[in-house]
Specification:
By secondary structure, the protein is mainly alpha-helical. The chain has helices at residues 2-22, 24-29, 32-58, 65-99. The longest helix has 35 residues, at 65-99.
Length: 100
């Protein structure tokens, strides 16, 4: 459930950020940035894709259309916020790396 996973994901992202900004050589050798992307961001994108596909299918069922439409709108708003935060995170990370 997202309430349980979100704090763990936030901690994981912070740990990877510290590793990448403080230990450049090790993080490059261990592909820390790729792991950060996969675990902190990509898995969440995949979850959104799966939920979007299920809700889109439900739009074809007249008995589920209204509820699915509302859920899809909520999901889209949530995904947009997630993408905005992700872009901000990576912009900040790039700034930190450029400053070192």
């Amino acid at each position: 459930d997202e309430k349980t996973v979100k704090p763990l994901r936030t901690t994981l992202i912070a740990c990877y950020e510290e590793l990448i900004t403080q230990h450049h050589i090790y993080s490059a050798k261990s592909q820390a940035e790729q792991s950060l992307w996969k675990l902190g961001f990509y898995k969440r994108i995949e979850e959104f894709r799966k939920r979007h596909a299920r809700m889109s299918e439900a739009l074809n069922d007249p008995s589920k259309r209204q509820r699915a439409s509302q859920a899809l709108e909520t999901l889209t708003t949530s995904f947009s916020r997630f993408l905005d935060k992700s872009v901000s995170f990576y912009a900040s990370l790039m700034g930190k790396l450029a400053a070192t």
